[in-house]
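Sharing a chain and its predicted structure for anyone who wants a worked example. Both blocks are below, sequence first, tokens second.
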Amino acid sequence: MSLIETKKYNKKDCVNEFVRDLIQGNGVENFRKYSLNGELDKYHIRGMAWKIFMEVLPETETLEQWVETIDNLRKEYKKKAKTILKTQKFKGDPLSGMAMTNSDNSTWKTYYADNDTKKLINLDLDRTFQELEIFHQAKIKSSLADILFMWNKENLDVGYQQGMNDILAVTFLGLYPCYFKNTKKLGKDEILKISSEQISAIQNAEDIYDFFHDEDELYSDLFYCFTKLMKRGLKELFQTIKGNEKLVDYKKYELFHNQLEQDSTDDMQNPLSIRCTLIIKEKLKSIDPDLYQHFKKIGLNCGIFLQRWLKCMFDREFELKDIFIIWDAIFATPDAQNGYGLVFLDYIAISMILRIRKTLLDSDQNECFTTLFKYPTIENMAELVIFSNNLQIAVEEMISGKRSAFLDRLLGKAPVITNNKNNNIPVMQNNFSGNMSFFPEGYNSNFIQGNNDNIKENKGFFKNAFSSVGGFFSNMKQKIDKKFGQHNDNNNNNNNNYNYTNNNYNNNGVILGEINPIVNMNMNMNNMGYINNVSNMTNFNQINSLNDCSQRIENLFNKYSTYFSTEDANEYKAIIQYLNNYK
């Protein structure tokens, strides 16, 4: 089998992006935006971004403070390595006297335990990404083993466990392409002498880049990235209950219900099991009750697949290039205010479930497990990240009692438009971001994307969306008739000429001629009850999509705003906002 080479970025590109984003631009804000759009890799700045996201380099610090921080951490790492990795030499017979005591402080007992851990680490590393040439290099394997052993010694409450090798390996592969040989070896003091004015000079910028991405310091930086990652919430997913020990108070992470009290089994004392329960019984149940009830009906234990997904951060489900895209977004998403770490893990998992919703609804327990453990290929992983980001925003709005336009769009619900009596501004949630083509199975994806060939299949959404809009225009039409003293509703409602204007109308007629297509569409849908003939709904010439309808409404508002009261104008604006959310 030929091994795959792990390539580094072009250094010139790395330095240019370093200057553009971190020194001259918005820095961390840009990194976060790139990550949540699945685009960080193309900017060749992952090494710096991950160190900032992991708070190895705290986001609140300046560039000069980062120089101090990373320099201190690297010195600290060398001291740790010297102390923890030194070869122990003992005098006397290991089989005699105190050497064989059961005391936890027994020198020989610790020695044997350490050797067992080192053997386990090396055994696992021998199986890690063996298709990649880089993991066959003895120096790299030895350095990764040292990092895992050092972390083990500093976290004996959990200790090293299988799976941590994969987490460290992916972290290494994320940093490695950004690190290069630093021939100048400028020290901290020399770097700090470079003023902000001088940084713009490409040579000075390269010196600073080299300081933060020195190949000889890769493993110290990797150690702290791994340590911070474990501290952000991954460590507790490897914890197991011991006796009456209480590891994590997950009660504070509940969103709506008291699910933990209902599931207080022995297994539920483990943080990983509790988190899986919260994902399904809190988040998924609130987003998609039908799918939740199906899982319950077939007796699907979601923890069986979720534990692997979460614990390994999806590194066994997708190709490496896609894992990086997912991890970028996970790291870029701040932890919840209540301390819930790596919260974006949950939303990636839920999005993966929703994406294959129809397949799961049509499957029994065994078929569901087969699909979930051999997850279908995702062609564009960035789309999953964008969807997950919007899903997180939607759930957070649900928690705060707000209506989510994103979930309305996903589930095909009509808008609810309410006026705030204090300021008369309609309350509308408009949180959908990005030009997203990814939509899960079994939802209203095709029509939402303007694919009129699929109107028939999405009749529920089509009807609901225009029912609200059409109802408003029916009301508006009556007001205009009344204002001009004309009552020609019946004639206009039966008019099948859907041109933008009608020369046979007077001023009032022009307005009605423009509003009627939308009103008639609503009436036709109500009369039919459903769309039984696609041609009936697609033969509207100008009005053939929500996008077009949104533009028409906005044009009408701008053209005839003087006819409307403040209340009517605000309702108009709300409808425009609602429909723009579906573009």
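Comments welcome. The longest strand covers residues 418-419.
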